[in-house]
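Handoff note, outgoing to incoming analyst
You'll be picking up this chain. Sequence as last confirmed:
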Amino acid sequence: MLEGMNTYQWAAPARSRAKRAIPRKADRHAVGQLVFGPGNGQCLGYASHLEYKVAICAIYRPDVIDVEEQLEGVRYFLPSLPVGKQNPLHYIDFRVTKRGGHRVGLIVKPSCRVTPEFRAQVRAVAVAARGKLVDSVCLVTEENINRIELANAEFMHEVRFPDPESDAVLASFLPTMMEACRISDIVRQTGLGDRGFAAVLRALTQQALQFDRRQRITFDTVVWPAERGQVQ
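Most recent structure output, in case you need it:
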């Protein structure tokens, strides 16, 4: 090994916390796993492309601190269930924990498969799970996915790994910001180039910087320091 060369010691991320096995492959839909969070990261599996979109959007929402997949099964009651038959078992797709501690269970389903019967099932699952696994339950379809939010979340995810040098330069620059400015202005003033753009995205993820989340992130996106609110 060359003397003085920087070395990187890889460590495995934390294993998936799913209580039900997620298939390794499927013929008609996507399955996979992503890693998120600080340090070595946390593995999170998904059993469809829609589940991936829901998970990545939830992970990068500013009020969310954790996302878990495939919670332990919960048995729920349906009035239509034949007498003597055991209550059916349902695995909630994701549990999203917010900063205030509120836990939201997400049941993900394509809109074409959401029938009145399935909505009744979701309501029954919510009654059974509330106060135990989650505090509330939401049904999520592709109609709930905001394309701008998804694009921004994927962008943030792509540059999540720290770059200590550029991150330190940006951290030193932020206290000098006297007004809101475009990302391109920060990149130019710090002299970091593309690495500066990635550093700004990480600062947005960590909420050291804020931006209008209704807009897609570009070099022209206006940002401002979080502790000052929106600087004029």
